[in-house]
Amino acid sequence: MAKVRTVLGDIESNELGFTYSHEHLWTNPPISQKDRDLELTDYEASVSELWRFKHAGGNALVDATTLDYGRDAKQLVRMAEETGVHVIMTSGFNKYIYFPKWVTSLTVDEIKQKLVRDVTLGMDGTKAKAGFLKSGSWNQLIHPLEEKVTRAVARAQLETGAPIWLHTEAGTMGNEMLDILEEEGVDLTKVAVGHSDRNADPYYHLSLAKRGVYVQFDGTSKIKYYPDSVRVDLIKNLIENGYGEQLLISADMGRQCYLHAYGGGPGFEYIIKKYIPRLLDEGISQQDIDTIFIKNPSRWLAQF
Prior knowledge:
Elements: E1 3-6, E2 9-12, E3 19-23, H1 43-56, E4 60-63, H2 73-83, E5 86-88, E6 90-92, H3 102-105, H4 108-120, E7 132-137, H5 144-160, E8 164-168, H6 174-183, E9 191-193, H7 202-209, E10 214-217, H8 228-240, E11 247-249, H9 270-281, H10 286-301
Parallel strand pairs: 3-4, 4-5, 6-7, 7-8, 8-9, 9-10, 10-11
Antiparallel strand pairs: 1-2
Helix pairs in contact: 1-2, 4-5
């Protein structure tokens, strides 16, 4: 049986359990990012939020903080040890505005080697290994440096088998990013396209799903974009068209203002305590809920 790579070691895929497939526990964006609400560097606050998730019924959490966004494996290892939650971390990049200077200087294959080390040896001076790879693009375009690291991610995937998650700014450029991965020989069934619900276009979502990828909706509760009623309709669109087994749902609560323990809300409990009950009320079955939050994350992450 294929295994899932957590910060505390590889586990059987059936051990993963109920999973949030894109969240953030520890972030520290570059100083060029002046919006410090994006900074999550209070250990007690972050671990308290993780405890809330566990007490609500959560088993596993995918942390999507990249090496250019303040990733710190030591902190997440501590949180996993303290709470018993399975924590999966990433190696890779967010978007070009955050890239370190060495991304410009190194070749694609030199960047690939860094990613491979994170997956096979450990991250940030620890023995904690990355469980997936990440690349990102900008709004309505792919910056040349983003194409560069996407090709490095693709080559690292081919060498390690690690699954891939894609950041798409405002839900754009998903298919274009997949084209790059496909050119490099990546099996698209190992890829998840994040932030897809930011582009609330049912046709677009079906175009992604038809290519075999996981389509991720991770804006749950973010009414500043649009109400959850829109997301419910987007979920139904994929399920009714036969793509329920390619759907991932999370909330990407990577801001202090989203997390109870940092003084915000709705916090990590929201999906379990409020959103899933709503989905059931709206006619989505418990079987579909289990597929989205248990079976699909396990299948996507179990590549080792």
